[in-house]
Amino acid sequence: MNTSTSLLEVRDLRVAVGEHTVLQSVSLQVAAGAVVVLMGANGSGKSSLGLALAGHPRYRVTGGSARLAGEDLLAMGVEQRARAGLFLSFQAPPDIPGVKNNLFVRTAVNAVREARGEAPLDAFDFLGAARQTAARVGLPDAMLNRPVNDGFSGGERKRNELLQLALLRPRLAILDEIDSGMDVDGVRAVLDLVASLRAQGTGFLVISHYQQMIESLAPDAVLRLEQGRIAESGDLALARAIARTGYARTAEAAVA
């Protein structure tokens, strides 16, 4: 694993939604091939950070900077960020009625391949790769021909996110509670896929409350977000302290 290359650099990032400030000042780094776990109580700003970095129009950056592989991430449009290698899994993946899953994913994959200077995949080649990957993440073949997430269970929606992650092979993946709603086999699929992509140099920012998964990820760093700021940073010992004492008591200990 190569952790010497700085992949994502966030400096003093401030974000507002309407007139409400959701991120006060966030600074962090994710190296190529590294896993950074972001923890925090509900409402601390974890999902807001992911959505702001992905370019969601509702989240207005009011200060600071973010760079992906040395490029100004905040100067890019949403599509440019995806083409540059940024992937965000949604905490609650939406459905897109009328748009077939395989067409949706193939269009995204080919857009990213074009940005990398790679030839597009035709429908036949893509379907073969998609079926193989679907089996790997535990998503039934039939879901490839269904509209995106339409009628999918919570676990199936998350497995569909894993399908996209595996096929897109991003530089940086932000996983927002990817384990939520997953059964044991689903969590194992997450861990296997993260390990595989990590070995290829993908950097991960993982938002999670699930201690067993955090332990299994063997993260390079653990950060605790509180009221829109990184209140504490550490390693697995920090995650274990949070699991043992809760966010409120961890915050009190950090101040003491």
TrEMBL record:
PANTHER family given in the database record: ABC TRANSPORTER I FAMILY MEMBER 6, CHLOROPLASTIC
Pfam families in UniProt: ABC_tran
Alphabetized UniProt keyword annotations: ATP-binding, Cell membrane, Membrane, Nucleotide-binding
UniProt name for this protein: Fe-S cluster assembly ATPase SufC
Residues of the ABC transporter domain: 8-252
Encoding gene per record: sufC
InterPro entries to which the protein is assigned, alphabetical: AAA+_ATPase, ABC_transporter-like_ATP-bd, ABC_transporter-like_CS, FeS-cluster_ATPase_SufC, P-loop_NTPase
Lineage: Bacteria, Pseudomonadati, Pseudomonadota, Betaproteobacteria, Burkholderiales
Organism: Ramlibacter monticola
Family: Belongs to the ABC transporter superfamily. Ycf16 family.
